[in-house]
């Protein structure tokens, strides 16, 4: 019975596919899993949303969505424009706790990055994490620019006394460039938290059975900071030769 809040350094960084990978790894380890998307934007009624994508990829996951807005915008903007009600942070916490009573792991996927507003009062996913006292997993992009957005996200978490569980690279390129390779060593430094995995680019296009079999190999055995990032680096990426004194990548 644990809640893990999944945020990202922005939208389109691979939060959903990472959430699916964590769910698949947890299922493979024999744990029951639920996924909660408090506010789904950019999806029309009846269309599959992020939680449906998690179920498609990971399998036997309980899926819940609290609000849906058709326009691809931040939830508060989308709610204002549609006239639909906003989602309250207390409602998110209540839904997550209810799922946590019945599942070993509850994954709560935000919309966009950490400080995207849920309502016109400025509530965010961070407020929900606070209420739940839940750790936050940060999904980051692989390449140039990710160090800044990851550091900003980590700083925002610290300022709110939230625990950063670690960082997962949401889409690890087949041919990582120099910046991506070096980022494997630098992301933990700027995040102040361990690098807990990397989901290969194109993972969501794999047949679900392949996705489920491979997902545990993309992530730390346990998302608790004991994963050996150096081992991943050695297996998946050539070394970064540029910075004297940097941890060998
Ligand atoms: N590892 C990956 N393999 C395949 N496709 C990916 C991967 N990472 C991201 N994508 C694609 O990139 C896009 C964004 O990914 P995703 O939906 O996971 O973003 P997100 O961070 O969850 O954004 P949102 O804020 O909308 O929830 C999607 O179209 C997805 O199919
Ligand atoms: C539509 C998109 N895919 C997400 N669901 C919402 C992303 C909101 C991002 C807002 C922002 O940071 O500017
Ligand atoms: Mg998503």
UniProtKB/TrEMBL annotation:
**Record-annotated active site:** 37
Q: Where mainly found?
A: cytoplasm
Please give the family membership noted in the entry: Belongs to the dethiobiotin synthetase family.
Sorted alphabetically, the Gene Ontology cellular component annotations on this record are: cytosol
One MF term in GO for this entry?
Answer: dethiobiotin synthase activity
Give the protein's biological function.
Answer: Catalyzes a mechanistically unusual reaction, the ATP-dependent insertion of CO2 between the N7 and N8 nitrogen atoms of 7,8-diaminopelargonic acid (DAPA, also called 7,8-diammoniononanoate) to form a ureido ring.
- According to UniProt, the name of this protein is ATP-dependent dethiobiotin synthetase BioD
- Biological process according to GO: biotin biosynthetic process
């Amino acid at each position: 019975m644990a809640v893990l809040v999944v945020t990202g350094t922005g939208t389109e960084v691979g939060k959903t596919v990472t959430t699916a990978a964590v769910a698949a790894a947890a299922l493979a380890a024999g744990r029951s899993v639920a996924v909660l998307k408090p506010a789904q934007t950019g999806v029309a009624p009846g269309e599959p949303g992020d939680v449906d994508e998690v179920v498609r990829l990971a399998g036997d996951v309980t899926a819940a969505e609290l609000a849906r807005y058709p326009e691809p915008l931040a939830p508060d903007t989308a709610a204002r424009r549609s006239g639909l009600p906003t989602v309250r942070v207390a409602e998110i916490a209540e839904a997550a706790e209810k799922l946590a009573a019945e599942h070993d792991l509850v994954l709560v996927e935000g919309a966009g990055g950490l400080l995207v507003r849920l309502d016109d009062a400025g509530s965010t996913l961070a407020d929900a994490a606070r209420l739940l006292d839940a750790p936050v997993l940060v999904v980051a992009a692989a390449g140039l620019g990710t160090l800044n957005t990851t550091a900003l996200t980590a700083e925002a978490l610290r300022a709110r006394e939230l625990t950063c569980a670690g960082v997962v690279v949401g889409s690890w390129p087949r041919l990582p460039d120099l910046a991506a390779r070096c980022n494997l060593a630098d992301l933990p430094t700027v995040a102040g938290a361990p690098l807990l995995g990397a989901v290969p680019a194109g993972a969501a296009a794999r047949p679900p059975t392949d996705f489920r079999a491979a997902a545990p190999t993309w992530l730390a055995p346990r998302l608790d900071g004991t994963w050996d990032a150096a081992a991943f680096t050695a297996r998946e990426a050539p070394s970064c030769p540029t910075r004297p004194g940097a941890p060998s990548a």
